[in-house]
Structure formats: C-alpha cells, structure tokens
Design brief:
single chain; 290 residues; 2 domains; ten-stranded mixed β-sheet; 33% helix; binds zinc ion
C-alpha cells in the first residue's frame, strides 16, 4: 500500500513537471526542485543572457537557487537539449564575460553544459568568492583564508549537478578570465603553482602565445604527470600545474576535486578579459586532445 502510494505521488509529480515545463528541457527531479526560473525571456535582465540571447534559445536554461547559511545562491544552469551529457564546465565568477560566452559556444558545439554563479556581474557573491567556498567543515573552511563559513551544501549541490551532466570519463572543467599580465600568468610561478610555457616567444595579445592564455591542471605530486603535461604543451597550450594538499588547500574547485573527488582529472581554461576567440580555440584544442 505504501509502495503504491509513493508510486502514485511520483506519477503525479512527474506528470505535472511534464506539463509545467518545456518537455525538450526536462530536468531530473532533484534539479527541477532547485530551479526558480526557466523562461529565457524573463532572464533577459541578466547581461550574460542578453549578450547570448540568440544562442541560448537553442539551449536549456534554468536559474538554480539554494540556501546555505546567510547565502541564497543563484546560478545559471545551461545545457544542451539533445545532448545533455557531455563536457560540463563550472564558472564561478560572474564578472568574467568571455568565460560565459565560451561556455555557450562549447555547449552548442559539444553538448553537455555549464553552471555559472550569478552575482550581479561581480566576482564576489555577497562578499564571498564562489571559487573559495568549497570547504565542507569548519576545520577545512577555517584553514582557508577566503572562505567565511563552512559550506557542505554548496559543494554537494554543485557536484550533484556537475556529475549528472558530465559524461562519464570526461574530466572536471572550469572556465575563467584573468587580467592582462596580472598575478595569473604563464611567466610567473610560486611555491604551489608552476608554469610551463608552451611557446618560446610568449607575446602580449597573441592568442595562444599570450601570457594570460593558459590551462590549469592540478595534483598531489610535486611534479605534473609527464604525459599529460607534454600532451598539453604539444598542443600549444601554456600549462600551469597547481600542487594541492590539505595544508595549502584554498577551498577552490581544483583543490576540492583533488582532495575530495579522488581524481586529478581537472582542467581550467583561462584567457584574459576580452579574448573570447582564444578561449574558444583552447576549448576546441583541449576537448579534441582528451
Ligand atoms: Zn575566475
């Protein structure tokens, strides 16, 4: 009887979903329950949506909302209606516009999709860097200078979405933009990040040879996996290797993947603000090489 009753509820629930939203863009229940908006027209208030309106018409778009502590997180989930499982990207910074445009490009071309944090066009969400919020416990978060509160729900929710749309066997992926010749550059290294330029003639404003065009990989060993590094360098992709461990954990996505997902399959593609052309080119090169 109990079983029959649950079945009945399930049936009613899925039928109502079928009628209330675009059939073409049906989400699994755990994601539908987080969605607070899925009309592209209404979402035109967002700059990212306005800029990509024509392309987004061909994709599935939902605003995901969940609360944790004082934060009521909002993220835009964009996926391909016919090929929902594929490369899936995380975009934590709302001020990085070409990363968003590149995510739209990648989704249309390769399927899968992306999850982009919405923070009114700013890098921070109510003072919290979304890419420093992946600390699950007080012990871990307390150790991360830029995470104000532990956020187990944040990591859990984001990874439940990523893992649903990410095709099995594909790595964890992220997209960012950086500033011209800023702290993130293939010409700079630090104790925890080593730079491996793919070109002898790194030159400003020159696509793949720009110092700001780079792919981040990460891992627990002192030096990167040689075949992985050589593959990327051979493809002309400047590569930065981030050494990750519990001591240096900064509660970013890369660190969370390495320390909590038990894999080192992570790539983050970065270009400087404004260089959409190179970011698209790097997406094509990386996905082809996987
Ligand atoms: Zn960023």
């Amino acid at each position: 009887m109990k079983l029959f009753f649950s079945f009945f509820i399930l049936l009613t629930f899925s039928t109502s979903l079928l009628f209330s939203s675009d059939k073409r863009c049906k989400r699994p229940d755990f994601i539908s329950s987080l969605s607070v908006e899925n009309s592209l027209k209404t979402l035109k208030t967002l700059q990212d949506v306005r800029r990509n309106y024509a392309a987004l018409k061909h994709l599935c778009v939902d605003v995901i909302n969940f609360k944790e502590g004082k934060y009521s997180w909002k993220m835009l989930l964009v996926t391909h209606p016919k090929v929902p499982k594929g490369p899936f990207w995380f975009l934590p910074h709302d001020n990085e516009n070409e990363a968003f445009d590149a995510g739209v490009y990648a989704t249309r071309k390769y399927g899968g999709g992306f999850l982009a944090v919405l923070s009114d066009g700013g890098r921070y969400f109510q003072g919290q860097d979304p890419n420093r919020n992946f600390g699950d416990t007080s012990a871990v978060a307390g150790h991360c200078a830029n995470q104000s509160h532990p956020a187990p729900k944040y990591g859990k929710t984001i990874f439940s979405i990523i893992n649903f749309y990410k095709r099995r066997g594909l790595p964890y992926l992220a997209l960012h933009n950086n500033t011209n010749a800023g702290g993130i550059s293939i010409l700079k290294s630090s104790a925890s990040v080593r730079s491996f330029p793919a070109h002898r003639d790194i030159a400003d404003g020159k696509g793949l040879r720009d110092e700001d065009s780079l792919v981040y990989i990460a891992g627990k060993s002192k030096t990167p996996n040689t075949s992985k590094l050589n593959r990327l360098l051979g493809e002309g992709l400047n590569t930065r290797y981030e050494l990750v461990n519990g001591q240096t954990n900064d509660c970013s996505l890369s660190n969370y993947v390495i320390l909590n997902r038990n894999t080192e399959r992570y790539y983050n593609i970065e270009t400087q603000h404004g260089d959409l052309k190179t970011q698209k080119e790097m997406i094509d090169i990386l996905l082809k090489s996987l």
